[in-house]
Amino acid sequence: MDDPIRTEIMKHRLVSIAEEMGARLQRAAFSPNIKERCDFSCAIFDAVGNLVAQAAHIPVHLGAMPLSVQACLETLTFAPGDVAMVNDPYRGGTHLPDITVVSPIFVEEKSQSILIGFVANRAHHADIGGMSAGSMPLSREIFQEGLILPPVKLMTCGKKNEDVWRLLLANVRTPDERSGDLQAQLAANHIGLERIQEFAKRFGVKMLLRDMDALLKYSERMTRQLLGQLPMGCYSFEDALDDDGFTEKSAVIKVAITIEGRKATIDFSGTDLQRPGSINAVYPVTLSAVAYVFRCVLGLDIPANSGCLRPIHIIAPEGTLVNARCPAAVAAGNVETSQRIVDVLLGALAQACPDRIPAASQGTMNNVTIGGWDERHSRPFAYYETIGGGMGAGPHSDGASGCHSHMTNTLNTPVEALEYAYPFRITRYALREGSGGKGRHQGGDGLVRTYEFLQPAEITLLSDRRVTKPYGLEGGESGEPGRNRVQQANVEKGIPGKSSISVEKDDALIIETPGGGGYNKP
Predict the structure, then answer these.
(1) Domain boundary at 159, 189, 220, which?
(2) pTM
(3) What is the CB neighbour count within 10 angstroms for residue 150?
(4) What range defines the domain where residue 9 resides?
(5) 291 within some domain
(6) 342-356 core/surface letters (b: 16 or more CB in 10 A; e: else)
(7) 174 is a domain residue
(8) pLDDT digit string, tens, across residues 119-155
(9) At residue 229, does pLDDT exceed 80?
């Protein structure tokens, strides 16, 4: 019988190690996207790739990372001092800018090295090559989005694989920044590796492995208990993305959640087929969204690990928006489609447990990538950020305003850091008052963010909820959709949610993000 006190102590001990990894990664990183926006995630895995403990980082990263670790296990043979990396969305990745760095944990016991698990982190690199700066283009195939990295050794027996480093850095626009961020990822794994090895030495390998297994089983038991409390039945819902960037046709995602005893089936049959544009999500992204939603509904302070998914069966037909086939473009699937998957899952569960489910949040990450030649420093630059918006109101409270929600857990780039690093400035940064849906509980308001350019640049936007609105619940009104505009020569015009434009000096880009849905009748 597992000791519940020991299990609780182990949970906090392992989570603290993942949090320490994140602190080191943030401090050591070069790019504002990682250092300031905290666009990274850290976690600990067992020897077969099960997620055992994670820091409170980014849901879309963490749910998919076990598949990246397992892809490395299937492809590579590990020895002490090895470090692997992967970004291939069709091998456990999410989209190409997210590079996952995986380090095996070996401990010495009876004069031999034993593999007991892995530490890993995933960080969004502001550029990984491809057809446009920032590597979030309006693409039609994954080859246009950047350099694809299958599981490959970044370090072998403690020595840097110089050929791999040179190959990677030769294919990006900002090699010094990429090298610095990768070094930070290595440093993060190093501290995690040290802490786990110290722990194993102090308490013994058998005890550590038994405690890891106990954490997985505990999360599974608690998830089954939650599912057993929900009314049995089948709950359906559908919602849509505005378009795929090449046509104006909406992209529908459907789900049917069947609760049967202490297990659940999540069936996405009927979802639209994958599109030419990059809104296609790979299976790891869909898995992440499902894990996130059920972990939120669980609502208890239990370990967020692979055990939570054991009672949940996912049906995601291949070739659809929620399980794309290679070589479909996927850059926006990670950031936009993941949000809509959450919206349909919550919409379905609102029928089963309305007292736990909020109205729709903004439903987009409002991705902005800007690139060009920095005349101040005589070098290329690539900038990426996501922008917060309104959260949906819930049964007991208003929605929060101007923050990131659901599958993203990053920050907005501080104005001072942005203006120091890039050749543009922020002339307005404010709440978009009145954009939240009306209700007894009010939806949160979105944001307004205006960029003024100090020199020519190329911009790519991947955003949604510019046509469809974040839904309200129980009679609450929908939140206002977002708007994108550009001001050139004192003439202002709207631009589509997914678009690529060129700007000149003194032009301005204005992003207005959606508000969250309201809850209950006003």
Answers:
(1) 220
(2) 0.96
(3) 16
(4) 4-220
(5) no
(6) bbbbbbbbbebbeeb
(7) yes
(8) 999 999 999 999 999 999 999 999 999 999 999 999 9
(9) yes
